Amino acid sequence: MSLLESKTFRIGGRVLFYLSIFILPWWLSLFLGVLLLVFIQAYDVLLGGIAADLLYGVPVAALGGISFLSTILLCAIAIVVFVLRRRLFLYHQ
Amino acid sequence: MMNSLRPSRRPTPPLVRLRLLGFGVLSLFIAATVFLFPSAFPSVLQRIGGPIWEGSNIAGGAFQTLGESFRSKYDLIQENRALQQKLADIELQLQGLKIIQEENFELASRKDHEESSPKIVAAVLTRPNVSLYDTLIVDAGERDGIETGARAYAGSDVLIGEVAAVYRTTALIKLFSTPGERTIVQVGTGKIQAEAIGKGAGNFEARLPHGANIVEGDDVVIPGIHPKIFGTVLSIIAGPADPFETILFRGPINPFEIRHVFIGE
Questions:
Q1: Does ipTM top 0.85?
Q2: How far apart are alpha carbons B80 and B76 in whole angstroms?
Q3: Distance from CA of B9 to the nearest CA of A (A)
C-alpha cells in the first residue's frame, strides 16, 4: 500500500488542513488544500473553504461585495483538478 | 509521430457516485442553512475556533520566549545599545509632544463634548494573514456588550475598522483597509476632505486635485470633534496630464502585528 493510499495519510492530511484554517496563514491552507485535491481527490476541502469564509468573510467592495472568496477559489481549483485528473500522467497506474 | 495519453474511459464506480451524491446533498444543506440561518454556522465555527486560537496564541508566545533564550550575548548587547539610542531620541521627541499635549488638553477642556461610552479592550485572536480578508477576530463578543457597527481602535485613538459580526464570546472586525472600502478622511495640515479607498493589508489610496499641498508624512485623520488618527501619507503620484494626484498612505499600526483592540463608539 502506497503512502497516498494509506488511511493515516488521508485522515491526517484532512485534519491538518481543517486545523490550518484556524491557525496557519491562508496561503499555507490553500497549498494543503491543493495537495489534497491533486493527490487524493479530497473534494471535501471545499467545505474548508466554506468554513474559512463563514469564519472570516466580509463583503469585499472591490470584488462586487462577494464574501465567499475562499470557496470560489477552491471550487475553481477543484474543477481544474477534476477535468485534468483523467488526462494527467500522474494518475495513470 | 507525437504520442499523447488518451483520457480514461472507465465508468465511474457506484461507490464514487454515492460519495458524489452525498457531497451534493451536503452542499445543498449547507447552502440552505447559510441562506436561511446566516449566523448558525459562523457561531458554531467561532465556538470551535475560540480554544484553538487561544491555544495557538499561548504556544506562539512560548516559542517566542524559547527562541529569545537562545540568542547570543553579543546580539543582546547590540540590541541594548540600539534601544538606548532610540530611547534618547524618543525622550527628545516627547519633550516637544508634552507642550502640544498641554495645548491640546486646554483646547479640549473648553469644549463641552466628552466621550460618554467607555471602550472595551479585546485581545486579537486572528490577524489578516490567516484569511483572504482584511479582518480580525477578537475575544470579546455579545456577553461583553459589543454590538455590530461599533468602532475598533488600535491604541487609544487610531481607528482601524468596525465590528462586522458579533458572536457570544468573539467578534469579527472588518478593517477599513479592506479592498474597495471607502472612508471619509481629512488629509494634511489644510484638512482637505477626501475619500480613502482600502487597498488591503492596512494600505489606502485617495485622489485629490493638484495643488492640494500634500507632502509625504502628512497626517490623515477621521473628521470629528475629536479627530481620530487614520494614517500617514507615504507617497504621492502625480502625472503631468492628470488633474488629480493619487495619495498612498497607511495606518500607523501594522494590522499583522496588532495584539489588542479597543472597541467603542
A1: no
A2: 6
A3: 9
A25 contact residues in B (CB cutoff 8 A): 129-130
Residues B186 and B242 placed together within one structural domain of the fold: yes
pLDDT tens per residue, range A16-66: 999 999 988 999 999 999 999 888 888 888 888 888 988 898 888 877 888
Report d(CA B224, CA B106) in Å as an integer.
Answer: 18
Alpha-carbon span B38 to B36, nearest angstrom = 6
The pLDDT value recorded for residue A93 is 54
For the segment B129-141, what is each residue's pLDDT rounded down to a tens digit?
888 888 999 988 8
**B124 and B245 in a common domain:** no
Q: Are residues B187 and B240 in the same domain?
A: yes
Size of interface A-B (CB pairs under 8 A): 85
Same domain as B140, residue B246: no
Residue B32 lies in a domain: no
Contact between A56 and B30 using a beta-carbon 8 Å cutoff: no
This prediction has a pTM of 0.75
- Spatial separation of the C-alpha atoms in residues B250 and B201, rounded to whole Å: 9
Q: What domain range is B233 assigned to?
A: 182-250
Question: Is the residue at B153 inside a domain?
Answer: yes
Q: Are strands B219-222 and B135-138 parallel, antiparallel or unpaired?
A: unpaired
